[in-house]
Design brief:
Glutathione S-transferase Yfyf (Class Pi), Chain A, domain 2; mainly alpha; Glutaredoxin; 9 helices
């Protein structure tokens, strides 16, 4: 895994080791920027890493600002949780956000909206409670997924389409004229939707050509493409946010 420094210190990413989940939005930003980091829970326990290290950090009673749950990053003495807050914090140094306060705020707003859609995608297979198995809430999941595929997915993706179409700096990026962490996160969102809802996603993406084109451009960025081919990229699976249950997909 990549290991070096950010701000002359080792940046630690703490997230579950077997799923992409919300941590993947942070990984993509770090990988696209060529930043070095330690993916703590995926590291060797003999080196003081692994799940035990993540849990120790999460349960540290001496921490004045403890994160609620992964993902969180340790950047020097600073501990930052919540995906959008992590990206907002890291992006200036990673050069994945505009310089103006307005650009940074707009990028954060887009990221938070992406996070809202991610939550709704998760709730298609766990609409009652995350502590229950999918099989214990299948009727409710089917109903939730039908609405997500028919109503919510188009509403969100068409909003992202509108942002791209109306960007004063051009239609290649969500904010300004260069790559931002919001572009990378929208790429990951599309990847997840295509995995979990291949029929519904194909139908909606056919109506959002700018979103589709952005996804394709991000996929071939050299660092992103190298990461996607590498063992650092955890495959989608039925333990993460985006789960492929064919009965929940709809044309």
């Amino acid at each position: 895994m990549p290991q070096a420094t950010l701000r002359n210190m080792t940046l630690e990413l703490h997230y579950w080791p077997a799923i992409q989940g919300r941590g993947e939005f942070v990984r993509l930003a770090l990988e696209a920027a060529g930043a070095a980091y330690v993916d703590v829970a995926r590291g060797d326990a003999a080196a003081g890493l692994g799940m035990a290290a993540l849990q120790r950090r999460l349960d540290d009673a001496r921490c004045a600002h403890p994160p609620f749950a992964p993902p969180f990053v340790k950047d020097g003495d600073l501990l930052v949780g919540q995906t959008a807050a992590i990206l907002h914090h890291l992006a200036p140094e990673l050069k994945l956000v505009g310089r103006s306060a307005a650009a940074r705020l707009w990028t954060l707003q887009i990221q938070m909206t992406i996070g809202d859609m991610v939550d709704e995608a998760h709730d298609t297979h766990h609409p009652i409670a995350p502590g229950l198995y999918y099989e214990e809430q299948q009727p409710e999941a089917r109903r939730r997924a039908r609405d997500f595929c028919a109503t919510r997915m188009p509403k969100y993706l068409r909003w992202f389409e509108r942002i791209l179409r109306q960007n004063p700096a051009g239609q290649r990026h969500l904010v300004g004229g260069r790559l931002s962490y919001a572009d990378l996160s929208l790429f990951q969102l599309v990847e997840g939707l295509r995995y979990a809802f291949p029929k519904a996603a194909a139908r909606v993406l056919a109506t959002t050509p700018h979103v589709t084109a952005l996804h394709q451009r991000v996929a071939v960025l050299p660092r992103v493409a190298a990461y996607l081919r590498s063992p650092r990229r955890i495959p989608f699976n039925e333990q993460g946010i985006f789960r492929c249950y064919p009965e929940l997909d709809s044309e």
